[in-house]
Write a structure and sequence with these properties.
The protein is α+β, with helices and mostly antiparallel strands. Helices cover about 15% and strands about 45% of the residues. It folds into 3 domains: about 1-115, DNA Polymerase III, subunit A, domain 2 (DNA Polymerase III, Chain A, domain 2), CATH 3.10.150.10; about 125-245, DNA Polymerase III, subunit A, domain 2 (DNA Polymerase III, Chain A, domain 2), CATH 3.10.150.10; about 250-360, DNA Polymerase III, subunit A, domain 2 (DNA Polymerase III, Chain A, domain 2), CATH 3.10.150.10. Strands 14-11-12-13-26-25-24-18-22 form a 9-stranded antiparallel sheet. An 8-stranded antiparallel sheet has the order 6-2-3-4-17-16-15-10. Strand 2 and strand 3 form a beta hairpin. Helix 1 runs antiparallel to helix 2 and helix 5 runs antiparallel to helix 6. It is elongated, with a radius of gyration of 25 Å. The termini are far apart.
Length: about 375
């Protein structure tokens, strides 16, 4: 195999591949990247057996087609630090030579037959949407997925296709984020549900180089795939039962507050400064047109902040973990958000955008 290609394009491809390829694995062959040179394209293939990537570099000069498997991390580090504009990759025997100008690196190759087979995107029953819209759904939900051990199904994002709506939901049991957007779902079976690992969703987003580009999303029985302009990414689905999220979202509430997003975030951060890790809670006290934010801890003291709001309902108070609320506000697309709830022990429903709902469970505090 012998290929001449643009250094920056190769660096970008190797950087993306190394987001998938593990630095250490019980299966050492997957610590490598597979290079496939055909016609006028060079394809980079990487996997950790859970998430896989195919990345195509066009406009390369292939003098000798072929396949090579080389150490992914070393190849990226060397290509990144080169100063030349073009690179020559050449395989001779069990050695891959990377050369740019007078700089050369020789890497030991691995038998390509040992490298795992990675799927290809066939486009069957795929839905098409704008890359930026997909990334936005992930950004607005994935942060709420569980990270600690237990309840494996919560370690992913539920992707649900209902008619012409793609919906994503993530929860860790203490908060839940739901975001949806219209898509062309005519080619996909109605009611499709897949739990995609959070890492897989994040990798999908990394593969989207231009938010204005169209991407294709394909649901399978064991995996979901995303096709972008230059990449195909696949993630193995989580096998488990996702919580009945619809039962968590309040449908009827008696108290409703509207507040400026920026100011509310500022007041929450202000008061959260005095709360300790052992009692991470702030209390929201609502009266007509007024919100009082209160927090305290035994070792630091207490703080109170006030702001004007539009509030409807009897005087009330409810306490939340401020970090959870702030996580949602970071992704809020509205200048004025709303909070709905019924009692201080019932979930708080934040409306953070069109088709974007964030539910946070309250905290019981003594003060």
């Amino acid at each position: 195999m012998k290929v001449i290609c643009d250094r920056e394009k190769l660096r970008e491809g190797l950087a993306l591949a190394n987001n998938v390829i593990p630095a250490k694995s019980t299966k050492p062959v997957v610590e490598n990247v597979c290079l496939v040179a055909t016609d006028n394209a060079l394809e980079l293939v990487g996997t950790d057996m859970e998430v896989s990537l195919r990345y195509c570099i066009d406009d390369v000069k292939v003098e000798d087609p072929g396949t090579a498997v080389i150490p992914a991390r070393v190849a990226f580090d060397f290509v990144r630090d080169l100063s030349g504009e073009t690179i020559t990759l050449e395989i001779k025997g069990s050695t891959c030579t990377i050369k740019s100008g007078a700089d050369t690196c020789e890497l030991v190759t691995v038998d390509p037959d040992e490298f795992p087979v990675v799927a290809r995107f066939d486009g069957e029953n795929a839905i098409t949407m704008q890359g930026g819209s997909f990334a936005k759904l992930v950004e607005q939900t994935a942060f709420a997925a569980a990270r600690e051990p237990g309840r494996y199904a919560m370690h992913g994002v539920l992707a649900e296709l209902e008619g012409d709506t793609l919906r994503m939901i993530a929860t860790d049991g203490r908060r839940l984020a739901l975001s949806e957007t219209p898509v062309d779902g005519s080619g996909c079976e109605a009611g499709t549900q897949s739990i995609v690992p959070t890492r897989g969703m994040q990798m999908f987003c990394r593969a989207i180089s231009d938010p204005l580009d169209q991407v294709q999303l394909q649901f399978g029985e064991t995996k979901v795939g995303l096709k972008t302009k230059n990449a195909e990414v696949f993630a193995r689905l989580i096998d488990g039962e996702f919580p009945r999220y619809a039962a968590v979202i309040p449908s009827e509430t008696t108290r409703h507050m509207e507040a400026d997003r920026v100011l509310l975030a500022k007041k929450l951060r202000l008061v959260a400064n005095v709360t300790g890790d052992e009692a991470r809670a702030v209390k929201l006290k609502m009266t007509k047109n007024q919100l009082e934010v209160f927090g305290q801890s035994a070792g630091r003291g207490e703080a109170t902040a006030h702001m004007e709001v539009d509030y409807k309902g009897d005087d009330a108070e409810i306490a939340f973990n401020p970090d959870y609320v702030l996580d949602g506000l970071k992704n809020c697309t509205l200048d004025t958000l709303s909070l709905e709830f019924t009692e201080h022990t019932s979930p708080g429903k934040f409306q953070l955008g069109e088709g974007y709902v964030y539910v946070v469970m309250p905290i019981t505090v003594d003060v």
